[in-house]
């Protein structure tokens, strides 16, 4: 039996074959697809891993930056993290310096190097680098403000560190800006030994890191501003008391340990500053302080340049009080020179608005030594010396002495007693006649204050007026004197109306004269007591008139307008500028008794008195010569044409009752 091929069977085999081939193709396609999928998965995983790593790096740096307020620490940490995690062998930081318009990046000591020995010359060059805007990669950050990738560092223009970079085997770099708001505050640069192609992902990451670091700089800047505000005087920008004390303490402690005393404190206080505030307003006072600070600064700077001056610091420690801390060879002499220069620098008149203002200072100096236990005591003694200088008149400099400390204590005690005396009105007036030299007729009396401390203890003005001036009590005392003098003048005229021009002359101290409403106060007292203005005269010393000549001239004119004449007292003992004297409408010039004292025979030298008489004549003033004690003086002075005199010869100061009882009042 023969078998005939079955047509159906062939058909089936063919089908099977085709199916197999299709399956095989499908398998190949599937394998390829799987491989591709696996590839994609593997890549994705790696990218994910890299992204995660970068994210982690960003997080680590951001969290460090959040806790840090030190840009240096944050930069150190960041550069180290980036070098380590991103495998860059060298990292270095630059910081922005220079004022706006002249800004640049300068190299720092902040760096990380995997192989420091090899990198050292390059790091040295980097430390000294100054990158100007635009010039090289870090400099370009000023303009571009985003990371700059340099695949071949030698191809860039102006890469001054090329020789050192070559020695370190470096090829490519990335420069990263540190940005605070819109401002470039620093940069980081990383170097690689191979030429690396730019990675956008890394650039984005570094940009974000730069911004995080910018926040640390911002925080630091705010902290610095706060610190500066806390330690500096907002008006003048000078260090304030607390900054000064901190500095002084540290210098003091060092000197105390080494027993090497070369420090002094110079204490400076303006005379008559209150007057500027009161008459011209606080803003004028501020302007004067600022203008004055500029002058003080330049004096301090000129000494700062001297090689023997080791340290000099100017600070404002109170309204019109300034101090200088000086550490120098020959400290005593240098401190004295500084004081002299300060007095000199204040001479030129300050123009404040429409007013001319003269700033005059009193200066006290204390030198450090083993006797000091703490810095505060040194500052206190400079203050005590300044106080002593002030008591001696304007523009004085005094070095502290231990006697001054005793005097200061005594003054403190007296201040307490004086305060009580003011409360109890424990003062009395005495009246000394002023006579016409031609006929010795009394034309007026000078009212002179006395302090009755105990029933049988009288303190003379020379022993308490300066303390009263120093602690401000002279104002209530002076007001009391003026009121009582007016009352006495009224009684003098009531008891003897025959001399309608008889006057009582009242001494007015600087602080009284500086009162804002002094003229009004005088007017009120006249109204209250019923005294006629022509019965009252006021006496100002030369220094009172000279302290603020413009104000003085204006006030004297107002007093004149009211009918009150003003005399210049103790003439010849102070320092008045003739130019200013000319502008002040004084009626009478009182020649100080020191020019008459001891003149008793023909050997007497009258040249000063004659000069003053001539001056008074040329300014249209009358003359009262003080301290006439003998007939010879009286005769001589009369022969010179001096119109009036005051002195023991004509009568000592007496109580009002005695004046009345002895009929010292002349019958006209
Ligand atoms: P001053 O204003 O120059 O007064 C004249 C002083 O010279 C008085 O001294 C008087 O007693 C003294 N004196 C008068 N003639 C002679 C004389 O011939 N020989 C001598 N050796 N001295 C004579 P006093 O009363 O001790 O007053 C001293 C100073 O105290 C005054 O000098 C004045 O500057 C001040 N003073 C007195 N009273 C007041 C006052 O109420 N207010 C103010 N701010 N100062 C006053
Ligand atoms: Mg007087
Ligand atoms: Mg006098």
Describe the structure in your own words.
By secondary structure, this protein is α/β, with parallel strands linked by helices. The chain has three domains: 67-231, Beta-Lactamase (2-Layer Sandwich), CATH 3.30.450; 241-400, Alpha-Beta Plaits (2-Layer Sandwich), CATH 3.30.70.270; 415-661, EAL domain (TIM Barrel), CATH 3.20.20.450. Helices cover 50% and strands 21% of the residues. It has 22 helices and 22 strands. It has an eight-stranded mixed beta barrel with strand order 14-15-17-18-19-20-21-22, surrounded by five helices. A six-stranded antiparallel sheet has the order 3-2-1-6-5-4. Strands 8-9-7-12-13 form a five-stranded mixed sheet, sandwiched between helices. The protein is elongated, with a radius of gyration of 44 Å. The structure holds ligand C2E and magnesium ion (2 copies).
List keywords for this structure.
668 residues; alpha/beta; Beta-Lactamase; Alpha-Beta Plaits; TIM Barrel; 3 domains; eight-stranded mixed beta barrel; six-stranded antiparallel β-sheet; 50% helix; binds ligand C2E; binds magnesium ion
- Strand order, largest beta sheet: 14-15-17-18-19-20-21-22
Question: What is the CATH C level class of the largest domain, in words?
Answer: Alpha Beta
| Straight-line N-to-C gap | 192 Å
Q: Which CATH architecture of the largest domain would you pick?
A: Alpha-Beta Barrel
Number of helices: 22
* Number of spatially distinct domains: 3
Main β-sheet, in a few words? Answer: 8 strands, mixed, barrel
Report the mean per-residue pLDDT as an integer: 90
Bound molecules: ligand C2E, magnesium ion
Q: Taking Cα atoms only, what radius of gyration do you get, to the nearest Å? A: 44 Å
Shape descriptor: elongated
Please name the fourth-level CATH homologous superfamily of the largest domain. Answer: EAL domain
Kindly state the percentage of residues in helix: 40-55%
